[in-house]
Design goal:
- There is one protein chain.
- Helix content is 25%, strand content 28%.
- Among the domains are: 1-91 and 150-225 and 327-385, FAD/NAD(P)-binding domain, CATH 3.50.50; 494-580, Alpha-Beta Plaits (2-Layer Sandwich), CATH 3.30.70.1400.
- It is globular, with a radius of gyration of 27 Å.
- The strands form seven sheets. Strands 1, 2, 8, 9, 10, 11, 17 and 18 form an eight-stranded mixed beta sheet that branches. Strands 5-6-4-13-14-15-12-16 form an eight-stranded mixed beta sheet, with helices on both faces. The chain has a six-stranded mixed beta sheet with strand order 28-29-30-27-21-31.
- Residues 370-426 form the FAD dependent oxidoreductase central domain.
Length: 819
Amino acid sequence: MDNRQPDQAQCVIIGGGSIGCNIAYHLTKLGMQDVVVLERDKLTSGTTWHAAGEIVPAILGSEWECELYTYGRNLIAGLEEETGLATGWRQDGYIQPADTPERLEELRRGAAFMRRFGIEMHEITAEEAAEKFPIGDFSNTIAAFWYPLEGRTNPVDTTQALARGARRGGAKIVEDTKVSEILVENGTVTGVRTEKGVIKAEHVVIAAGMWSRQIGATIGLNLPLQAAEHYYLITEQLEGVTRDLPLLEDAHTWTYFREETGGLLIGLFEPDAAPWQIDAIPENFTFGEIEPDLDRVLPHLEKSFSRVPSAAEAGVRKLFCGPESFTPDLAPLVGEAPQVRNCWVAAGLNSLGILNGPGIGMVLAHWIVNGHCPVDHTAFNVDRFADGSQNTPAFRRARTPELLAKSFGAHFPNDSFKTARRLKRSALYDRLKAAGAYFSEGNGWEAPDWFAPSPEEAKITQYSWGRQNWWDWHAEEHRAAREDVVLMDMSSMSKFLVQGPDACTLLNRISCNHVDVPDGRVVYTAWTNELGGFEADLTVTRLSREKYLVIVGENSHGHTETWMRKHLRPGEFVTITDMTSGITQINVHGPKARALMERVSDADLSNDGFPFMTAREIDVGFFMVTALRVTFVGELGWELHVPTIHAVQVYDLLMAEGQELGVRNAGMQTLSSLRLEKAYRDFGIDVDNTDNPIEAGLGFAVKLDKPSGFIGRDALAGIKSRGTPRNRMLQFLLNDPEPLMHGNEVIYCDGQPVGHIQVGAYGHTLGGAVGIGFAETDDPLTAQIVSESQWEIDIAGARYSAKASLKPLFDPAMDKIKC
């Protein structure tokens, strides 16, 4: 095989494992022939060679996960026929047992959603599970799910087949070649340097698995991923283990089982995993193993034997320990690096590199060649990590032990990470904790989820898919927002000061709405890509002629800043300053919000003096704050942007003066239930880069007649010109007050599946579960069809009738907001 290194390429891929070979394979499929894969040793020598090779979906909770999984499964199943190389693909089927009502609820809730995306699964009895997996103990199993189309593949053989396919397409694979430097000029990648010389390249992809963090750091990239020990045991031949034995994943014991040469392979995703090589992965670690920690791992193996008791008496052929890399939020790191143009990342697959490799390869290839991501990237875009706080050695050391079990075990709607907490705390944290706040974690922030009557009661007594112990307290917060007044600490919202002579030009270029407005105007707008897909939804406030305040959700922090900087043109003068840590955002909302504000401020807070969607500098007690009259809950109110040094004093004043008005603290659960009653959208949760504002019902914020135009204008004009869309976002309210919606519930229109709920909550004012989701029909989805059709929502296998609406079911005329 020719192992010579070329001196130039259109794309250089660093890493010859599953991901690197998948990217090369898919780039050539899209017509890019000048592709080079550089592998420091031999193909698959990092972690690919010891992967289990299971091609099973577990419980997939998002559309992009389903799309990537089904694409990858189908590609792997046909790869041997295409390339002529054996891959080891076997369609043995897959079983998931449920031994508790909550686990069964989780599986049932996921079933309809996954079926909608082509994943065949059937609920079976414990007896049927035992027939398919006769060596298992299902005596405590309530029910199980059977996936007949899933199976396993040989990781090394599959990667070699991908490599052959890439070579046939024109790619060159060079082994025994270490990249010593990624070359960058003026913020754009220009190639790589190896011991053999320089390769000039238009694109460079970092797909080096657990080494990616170190490689990225050499050019200033923040790639938070950490290797962890991963164990599996292979038994001697075991009676009852046949070659066609299905794969079994058991969340109750954090274990997976499959046949291995007549024995049983037992893999662990234990709840106290061990990080490996915190400082740096050794560069010479090739086809390597880690010395097993028997004291730590044996108790977990013993627990696994409760599912397959005969394994406890079987001889041990091999106890293997090897590294797998994980990210802080268990989503991959994929996309263009925010700091370096044309430098791409595909890493952090969280032990799913074989399973998701084809999907990631397809996605990144399209992104590179066509300039856009073909699936929702909001969860895995590498630019989501805005700073290095989740990439310090201390953070990775603390978070990694939780990650394996978190990816494998049971899940609940409001369960957040327990480790590496208190990373980002509002200045009000201590006040809120003393007031009974229960904090959840999101994007590194401690967010008050709900408030108990006392700090001692601020805990979840039992996780559930139903009403938990905090339900009534949350309902009281919701009612207070609708009837009295609440304070919400929204300090986690990302805030950017954008200023300079060209600030208006930049923001008008990337905003669908007009932002060249009078000083003091707040503008709600979407940012879209060239295809008209969302890249953000946010507010842009003009503080003065050359100064704007951009406010967006914390989940979009890194992406929003990257999008602005990416679209600055040569010669434009704009400064972008992240003000998030310097501003404490206190939202005051409810019918009595004006009465409370008038007690603490001498400013004119009347509707005429301070209209909706305006901003003013006002006094609050001894302090000056920037106040925005906006809402995300559907009530009269203001966002107060308080300098952090004054935050506690302002909060204390508002609480003291609001006692007679019934003021309460309110948390994120209440924010969610309030905003979903009003059907407000939220980028990264309800809408993503594959959705557009027209179909999402936000056409009012798209000004197609802007003289200067905007990014995505032509695409959105084309969508608008086609008339009423077939795909539209609707609001849904269950007629039965008992069931709960959390997201992913399938929507039925006149008996046919037409979409799924993006996110749900309980509408305490409307009297039932509410949610929003896209519905797509064969004909234009007119208001008449929406009102006259029979709508149902599938929840854990049962269908419930629902009311659908194009307009918000709560206060559709916005009377409460504009009073």
